[in-house]
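Tutorial handout. Part one gives the primary structure; part two gives the three-dimensional structure as tokens.
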Amino acid sequence: MGAGTTKGKRAIPWVVLALWVGVLAIASPFAAKLADVQHDRVTDYLPANADSTRAAELQEQLPGGETTELVLVYHRDGGLTAADRATAREQVTRVAGEHVLTGTPRGIPSEDGTTLMYPVASNEPGTDEEKRDAFVDAVRDVAHGEGGLTVQVGGTGALTTDAAKVYESLGGPLLYTTVAVVAVLLILIYRSPVLWLVPLAVAGVADYLSMGVAYGLNQAFGTTVSGQSSGIMTILVFGAGTDYALLLVSRYREELRRIERPYDAMRAALRGCGPAVLASSGTVAAGLLCLLAADLNSNRGMGPLGTVGVLCALVAMLTLLPAVLVLLGRRVFWPLVPAYGSTPKARRSLFAAMGTSAGRRPLTVLAGGAVLLGALALGALNLPGTVKQQDSFVDRPESVAALETLAAAYPESSAQPVDVLTPAGRADATLAAIRDVEGVDDVREGRTGGGWTEISVTVSAPPQSAAETATIERLRERLDGSYVGGASAQQIDLEDTNARDRLVVVPLVLLSVLLILVVLLRSLVAPLLLTAAVVAVWGAALGLGGLLFGPVFGFEGTDPGLGLLSFVFLVALGVDYGIFLMHRMREESLRGAEPAAAALTALRTTGGVIASAGLVLAATFAVLTNMGLVQLVELGFVIAVGVLLDTFLVRTYLVTSASVALGRRVWWPGRLSRAPEPERTREREPVGS
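Part two.
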């Protein structure tokens, strides 16, 4: 019987490994197709029900499909010469000869004579993003200057292409940089030439599986897959997955000292840390799924993809990682192999010292930390306004340079048209109504098809200025039954919808996370404490962004979705560490430990793994700060700083000191708050060390 049982135990890891090989074989064809369904079109980011979204969708249905609008900008500081104008006409004629354009390009000179712009539009690429990018690149190959003549290709089509190229660069560099950062941190944490490879390889497997599942969701439910959402999914797989691995490996190392067989030690480790890992992943998944209530397409699509990443990481770290570690045995920890019956070297614990300092004067520490977080949060008042489209790039591409040239040369009008889609039968009345709107400079009728007519409106104000925004609002008030779109209208809708989404999603995230914590901790006060802590961390991290984005980084604005997305990620991910800490504190209390002793023991035993996990998670999100779009840099910065604040200030000092100050009331109204529990006869191992 004993031999058969032993053989069965030895077979289980191999069975798990074989099952994973089968799962990857099934997922592989789908994972390879994820890039095919990834799109970064305007409609993939716009609000679902906004005017600008409907206008963009109708434009795609007009004859020729979606229009790619460009502006060829010819500029000479001292004034354009006759030869410059001839060069411009020649190049524009060549573009018209090589591509199918909508209308005949007409040159518009600036009043000071330094600039000449040619608006160019084509339906040739349609909705095909590769054709659009090829069209923009082809025009740029033709339009070039020499001898002091500057030629730039701008317009909404060029801006979209430049942004798409940044998102395309996310795939490879983002993955490689994330892997490299996690690898370095794991080597430093484990101090082993072999062990770091195991969780990293398992995280890679989980990432590949998540790609296959994400493709399946897209095919089954039409889930939006964008460069932003797929990139963050990868970060979550490696960040959250590595966190779960750190917790499991730490517990497994301890069990190997107490239990002889690796299989039995792993079972004990899973029993010990499994509930905390499941609860922490549940809070992240619940928080991310709240994004389904968002009206913004990019936010709503990020919810399912982020959840897929977290759940794939969870499944891999609780099945594949244990199987591989058991098969490799104790030698995977070389050179620091945990021998059976041994005890770890006694070391002075940094977290024990920090906990002791927090325990001596808990109210003073709590008050000081609260004041510090509050002071940092005030920096959010210094956040720059909404980032303009031309300011959304870290490195200025040609399309942005063209916009800046146009803004200086044509201060009295916008080179970024406003698109109006009106019922074809009312086109003449709509044209007349538009001409009467204050702030309108020029109106041109465009394509007609499917019962709709396209009208291009030039506004006598710079793009995304207050005056242009007022004109767009007047158009929407005047044109009942028509849809007002275009790049500037889209930015207005993005800002308005993000404000609406914050009002809906933030309470949902708080409620879902709070309910999970109440069920896990069987208390009301402790969950409220943890929730308040992560909200304070979010405010402080956003405040640091306000202090640094403009003065230090030189950013001209912030993305409208920064507040919501950073809140969702910091609350959902930050509660993870609170779960690790409070779950251990509850274990100590159940053994009969006094509240202060339970809090300090929990910090001493879980502090190391929480610190390691926090560093890894912060580093993975910090990878976003190396990307080329301001919104990604800002999001990565706020989340990374927030995780570090949560790990080394809030969990270490504030939650511990609050728990000491509250005593048994932290578990109210659960039974731990009413009477001390007798110490249990069988000691359980700590959650992590």
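Part three, for discussion. The two ends are 36 Å apart (CA to CA). The chain has 20 helices and eight strands.
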